[in-house]
Amino acid sequence: MPAASPRLYFENAVGSLYEHPDGYADFRFKPGKRKISELQALLTHVRTLLEFKRWHRFLADQRLLAPFTLEEVDWIVGHWRNTSAQHPGAYTAPSSWPKMSLPVSPWARWCTKPTP
Backbone phi, then psi, for 101, in 5-degree steps? Predict the structure, then answer.
């Protein structure tokens, strides 16, 4: 029996979000410039999918990602910090940490590097 394919959940100019049959959100960034409202829409749908399905895992394919702007970084940090505060423990276990494919662009890779 063939494995089930991920189902498209949401798509816009920034990327595509899939429901993976193995129980995680899978989103893939598209190349090029983006509007912050489109990035917010994609990441808000990631959050909505995770909450609706009661999932705690996601895979982010950032290979085509352009570097984040400072405005985008500020929003992302605030958005996920607020999400973590509203759902203590949901995003803290090592098995729930996000899995990411790093961007091809060295500058984008540096911008997405975790800080201690």
Answer: -90, 125
CB atoms within 10 A of CB 108: 19
Structure tokens at 47: 């959050």
- Number of other CB atoms surrounding residue 68 within 10 Å: 18
Q: What is the pLDDT of residue 34?
A: 94
Band of residue 56 on the pLDDT scale cut at 50, 70, 90: confident
**Residue 92 predicted with pLDDT over 60:** no
Residues 6 or more apart whose CB falls under 8 angstroms from that of 84 comprise 90, 91, 92
Question: For the chain, which domains are there?
Answer: 7-111 (3.30.750)
C-beta of residue 73 within 8 angstroms of C-beta of residue 45: no
46: number of CA atoms within 13 Å, CB side? 27
- Helix ranges restricted to H, 54-116: 70-86, 106-111
